[in-house]
Amino acid sequence: MKKFYITTPIYYVNDVPHIGHLYTTVMADIMARWKRLNGFDVFFLTGTDEHGAKLINTIHSTDMDVLQSFCNKMSAKFKTTWDLLNISYTDFIRTTEYRHCITVNSIVESLFKKGFLFSKEYTGLYCVGCERFYTIKDLDENQCCVFHKNKLILQSEKNYFFKLSYFKDKLLERITNSKHKEYINIQPEERKKEIIGKLHLGLEDISLSRTRTNVNWGIPIPFDETQTVYVWIDALINYISGIGYSNDRNKFKHYWPVDIHFMAKDILWFHAVIWPAILMGLGYPLPKKIFSHGFFTLNGYKMSKSLNNVIYPQDLVNKYGVDATRYLIINIIPFNTDGNISYLDLTLKYNTDLANNLGNLFFRIIKMIEKYFNLDLPYVKKPNILLAQKISRYFKINFCNNINELKFQKALTILQQGLTFINKQIEIDSPWVLHKHNRTNINMCLSSYLQAIAVVALHILPFMPTVSQTIWKTICAKDNIDNVATKYFTNNNVIPEGGFLPIKGKISMINIIFPRLV
Ligand code: ME8
Q: In angstroms, what CA-CA distances link 103 with 95, 96, 243, 320?
């Protein structure tokens, strides 16, 4: 079995999860589910980033016990949210865990021994929101952070520095040359160009530690107890501590390098430049793909707690339900751009795509089976899978390829077209006319709609796992949907000759899956 390793950023615990975090996490979950269905041995890592000045500022305390218990509480909120949203993560890493701290120790020690660290006095402008130093040219017209809109703090410290500048040419080669055996595929293209442009301007060494008197809430540098590891270096290392770097070496060797790191554009620089440089310093393979999406904005500003413009996942779940929330969140703005989010747009999309198209189509078919067959599966000597095959072929070329290329929004447009096609076929066949004159044909037609709906259920499984299971069970489709889907997707999307339904069965009448919202 080929492995596939997927990550989300590990989120800061100073904030509860909002729909920006949800966006990345659902995206990664869809990919993880998709790859599993395609026969891959998937490891999907998420978690929480718990050290640093930002947390001390949030809770106004430097007491270790207070900080730790706050982290425990907040980290649990992320877990609960991901469980609520059906996120199928393999492991959840926390940077305050022992397995992580000893990995960070060992990495910093290695970099030191290899000569990539040196000590230096540094003065710079620090944004606590971003947990990083900026130079004047990075700031907005009011000399504020472009993301947090706050004034920066002038800080002066003696720190350990990482020789990032040494890696400039190596990075440029690995980012630009797709033939390189360690090519880092940064997507989308326009962000990759930004990274290349910035790299050409030059690369400065970066501080890898903070003095303990300024930031005590961190992992101590193993060879200098007066310093703690800079929170970003600490955080990036989660990608290897979470797959057993220090406690299960075989697991680490099996899953590393990562296949896709997911994140938004705010932290692409850390993943596309600093992280690969650290890995090169250590002599480990580099990430294969780094995918950075845009921001959810409200009135043009990035949604974040510090700007007080946040929508929470629970708000969406209360209004739309879990599966619709997953569908809407990744479908409401294109991945590569920022986009304003509003309840009006979400509800419109919900009604158009889910209530009127998918939900209505499904309910319409079930209602006809109730009316014409008293909920028995329509009997056919030989299953008619022509419509199902048409849909399947259309999805294979369009839907599946788009998912593989991380174009989820396009894939879901194709899904909607497939649903419209089935609806049109029902109009053409007009079972309500056949019912009066041609019993054999009405059996054939309704059975073929069920086979086509089964194909739809297989394809929406990574996006809406619960609804997909409900559809599958309602139509009495054979076997467990996960097994059938894996067989189908690993066998070139071939529909079994006998279709997906048993010869006999009774459909259980269900409520409307996506009630229309006003
Ligand atoms: O940066 N729109 O954590 P973080 C879209 N701990 N995505 C958003 C978003 C928005 N408005 N707001 C947040 C950190 N995100 C570090 C990461 S990883 C080694 C360390 C998502 O809690 C998006 O994925 O600030 C973004 O990159 C991430 O949350 C930032 O999360």
A: 10, 11, 11, 41
Query: Tell me: the pLDDT tens digits for 119-175?
Result: 999 888 999 888 888 888 889 989 999 888 888 989 888 999 999 999 999 999 999
Residue 503 has φ and ψ, to the nearest 5°, of -70, -40
User: Quick one: which of 81, 95, 80 has its CA closest to 22?
Assistant: 81
Angle of helix 360-373 relative to helix 408-429, nearest 10 degrees? 30
Is 484 inside a domain boundary? Answer: yes
Output the pLDDT for position 57.
Answer: 87
* List of residues 6+ apart from 351 with CB closer than 8 A: 516, 517
299, pLDDT greater than 80: no
Buried b (16+ CB within 10 A) or exposed e, 166-198: ebbeebeebbbeeeeebbbebbbeebbebbeee
Report yes or no on 383 lying in a domain.
yes
C-alpha 252/C-alpha 107 separation (Å) is 14
Q: How would residue 214 be classed by pLDDT, with cut points 50, 70 and 90?
A: confident
- Report the pLDDT value the prediction gives residue 439, as an integer from 0 to 100: 74
pLDDT tens-digit map of 353-390: 999 999 999 999 999 999 999 999 998 999 999 999 99
Q: Is residue 390 part of a domain?
A: yes
Q: Are the beta carbons of 11 and 386 closer than 8 angstroms?
A: no
Range of the domain at 442: 342-490
**424 a catalytic residue:** no
Q: Catalytic annotation on 127? A: yes
Phi, psi (5° rounding) for residue 314? -60, -35
User: Mean of the pLDDT values across residues 491-503?
Assistant: 93
User: What lines the ligand 1 site, CB under 6 Å?
Assistant: 9-12, 20-21, 23-24, 49, 235-236, 238, 263-264, 266-267, 295-296, 302-304
Report pLDDT for 105.
97
The CA distances from residue 332 to 266, 345, 467, in Å, are 20, 8, 19
Between CA 213 and CA 225 the distance in angstroms is 11
Domain count, the chain: 1
- 61 belongs to a structural domain: no
Q: Is 21 a catalytic residue?
A: yes
Nearest 5°: the CA angle 509, 513, 516 is 125
CA of 18 to the centre of ligand 1 (A): 10
* CATH at residue 452: 1.10.730.10
pTM given for the model:
0.95
